[in-house]
Design goal:
The structure is a single chain. The chain is an alpha/beta fold and about 550 residues long. The protein folds into three domains: about 170 residues, no CATH class; about 240 residues, 3-Layer(aba) Sandwich (Rossmann fold); about 80 residues, Alpha-Beta Plaits (2-Layer Sandwich), CATH 3.30.70. Helix content is about 50%, strand content about 15%. It has 21 helices and 14 strands. Strands 6-7-8-3-9-10 form a six-stranded mixed sheet, sandwiched between helices. It has a four-stranded antiparallel sheet with strand order 2-1-4-5. The longest helix is centred in the N-terminal third of the chain and has 26 residues. The radius of gyration is 36 Å and the shape is elongated. The N and C termini lie far apart (about 75 Å). It is found in: Membrane. It is a multi-pass membrane protein.
Length: about 550
Amino acid sequence: MMNYSVSAGLVVGIFIGFQKKAYTSPENLPALVALLLLYGWAVIPMMYPASFLFDVPSTAYVALSCANLFIGINSSAITFILELFENNRTLLRFNAVLRKLLIIFPHFCLGRGLIDLALSQAVTDVYARFGEEHSANPFHWDLIGKNLFAMLVEGVVYFLLTLLVQRHFFLSQWIAEPTKEPIVDEDDDVAEERQRIITGGSKTDILRLHELTKIYPGTSSPAVDRLCVGVRPGECFGLLGVNGAGKTTTFKMLTGDTTVTSGDATVAGKSILTNISEVHQNMGYCPQFDAIDELLTGREHLYLYARLRGVPAEEIEKVANWSIKSLGLTVYADCLAGTYSGGNKRKLSTAIALIGCPPLVLLDEPTTGMDPQARRMLWNVIVSIIRERRAVVLTSHSMEECEALCTRLAIMVKGAFRCMGTIQHLKSKFGDGYIVTMKIKSPKDDLLPDLNPVEQFFQGNFPGSVQRERHYNMLQFQVSSSSLARIFQLLLSHKDSLLIEEYSVTQTTLDQVFVNFAKQQTEIHDLPLHPRAAGASRQAQD
């Protein structure tokens, strides 16, 4: 209202400057000021909830400005034109009803009030020409009094409406919560964690997700489906999943960037539904897309967020220098962030998340675009955070990074956890056994090595094994159902007879476990083909 009062004052000044008697006479000037101020009082809370219909601020500005002009000009003009048909009682009755209906719009109240002030002054001027004095009180009910009263009431009503929208009154009261299908075929470890959270879990958990769910409007399948997990102090919890699995949506709900459909989450005992401001005080967040100001330097960013975090003034420089050195930003610290490369922007975003030593740090793909040296420096920082008994939740597409940092991880598919546990536990439970790689030596230097005896040996001793590679003197088999001791025993006892020069046995990698679950998310084979592609597929089959 203070900002709007400046604009309203300029409008009044323009009228006075051009000496428009209809609005600047001693009787009408107070009415003009009242019209303008009450219009602002009514239209500001009316536009605020309307802005929720848009995602882009510039789009909202253009659309709402056009709507305001359209309503204000056309409603006032239509009622004014209809009054000119004095001999048509039907149109006059219609105009009277229309004026009563349009009064709910502050734009009409303002426009019609200005017209009525001008008409009243015109009548006064006509009487003055005949030497008679005629002055009507502009605040009279039938003049602009009803318009002023309507805008006064509208301001209160629209303000209450805005508060109800902010409190999600309409969503909780009138929109029924979508029905949830029962959870079936849930992994044992995920079900055990769910039961632990539902029954109260550990009181020491820094982060606790309790049936956290997000369903976007217009969709039936949830983006995040009833997640239950607790992250303990000194734990780096990894969230893995293909693009669209729900990792970033989970982070957005935890930070308050998007609303929660159902369920709850607590950070250091504070709920994200009722105490989001206190949650922010206990959380550091590195978003997937850098949220930095291109006109500030890296050092200025860190100073700004250190002040927001409540770092004492005498410690800000020390904290900023530590962040710059830890993330390898020393050379670029005093350059504008807009000139940074993608990797350096990720470093700065991560440094901002670490300011203030929050108990919980959320890192959404922090090493994307970083060089190997910077990645190692970040890993060292995360390890130091874990040693300080703080918690980290990390999303990444680098399996190497997860194996180096995560004490426990979960793989998300279509918004739900499909497995959970330590890396070794997931490899043992969901892996495809072992990979045996052998190098076969030739009996004579001028002869090719004979690989057939080795292939027969594996088919006989390891039923179901699959040959993955065969080269000049190299063989690789995937052995699914056999103990590690038995594999070494058989290879060692037949090493000489099979002419095995060297061999290695490796466990299924985390990448392979991830790919097996990722297939459930993509389901490429279920997507409909383009007609041309379908025709080509049929020709290939023919």
